[in-house]
Design a protein that fits this description.
This is DUF3159 domain-containing protein. Pfam families: DUF3159. It comes from Microbacterium marinilacus. Keywords: Membrane, Transmembrane, Transmembrane helix. The protein has one domain. The chain contains ten helices and no strands. With about 240 residues, it is mostly helical.
């Protein structure tokens, strides 16, 4: 039985449901667009990187909670609740400011939730280093997702670019695009695995201060250049999107 919105002679089952690749591409592409990374729009590389980092506010939201934790924990490791509380409090302030200014709170709210969960785990175990467990796990998950997507020929970068530029999955039929998207996905996987390779030994050695410091140094300073490279590579593959 068809509904009033169905086309004449077409049942709901006759219409093709979105494929898994389309759903993944839409999800990743939508996230990229919200972050200001849309190859279909005219923008300089610097503008794209700046938007991806969230501007001044985004950088502060990303850096300050962890920086506060590292500084306070280094000076006063006990009580642990002091450094954790100030870190979560900083994230809460950013979220509150966004709510008061009626700006999109998603980024700050996500940071608050992550900071709160990490702090709860550290308080539960009584180990300051456990404030970084969620970040370590996230790097492992993201790195694996990008690497697997590259190895099976369904690069997450390609899926996102295909969605944003209306190319769908047609890029998989183009050897040049497929190769570029393969290496871009591997580059992103390498970034996440590099973080894990450096930070996990420090976690196991209970070097909390050094772990927190390197987490900051391997955050935006490595993220920004890779965003720029990705943007330039995708724009080179789709020069027609500039007109």
């Amino acid at each position: 039985m068809t509904s009033p919105t169905d086309a004449p002679g077409e049942s709901r089952d006759d219409r093709e449901a979105p494929s898994a690749s389309e759903l993944v591409g839409a999800a990743i592409g939508g996230a990229a667009r919200r972050a200001g990374i849309d190859p279909a729009e005219e923008a300089t590389t610097g503008d794209v990187v700046w938007k991806a980092m969230g501007g001044v506010r985004g950088m502060l939201e990303s850096i300050l909670p962890s920086l506060v934790f590292v500084i306070v924990y280094t000076l006063w490791p006990e009580p642990l609740v002091l450094s954790l509380g100030l870190s979560v409090g900083m994230a809460a302030v950013f979220t509150l400011v966004r709510l008061v200014q009626k700006s999109p709170p998603a980024a700050a709210l996500g940071g608050l939730i992550a900071a709160g969960a990490a702090a709860a785990l550290a308080l539960f175990t009584g180990q300051g280093r456990d404030n970084f467990v969620i970040g370590l796990v996230a790097n492992g998950v993201y790195g694996t997702a990008f690497l697997v997507s590259a190895l099976v020929g369904w690069s997450l970068i390609g899926l996102a670019a295909g969605f944003l530029l209306g190319d769908g999955t047609a890029w998989r039929e183009d050897r040049r695009k497929r190769r570029v998207f393969l290496w871009l996905a591997i580059a992103w996987a390498a970034l996440f695995y590099a973080r894990l390779a450096v930070q996990l030994p420090l976690y196991l050695a209970n070097e909390t201060t050094l772990l927190g410091t390197l987490k900051l140094l391997m955050g935006l300073p490595l993220f920004a250049p890779l965003v720029a490279v990705t943007w330039l590579a995708v724009r080179a593959l789709y020069p027609a999107s500039r007109t």
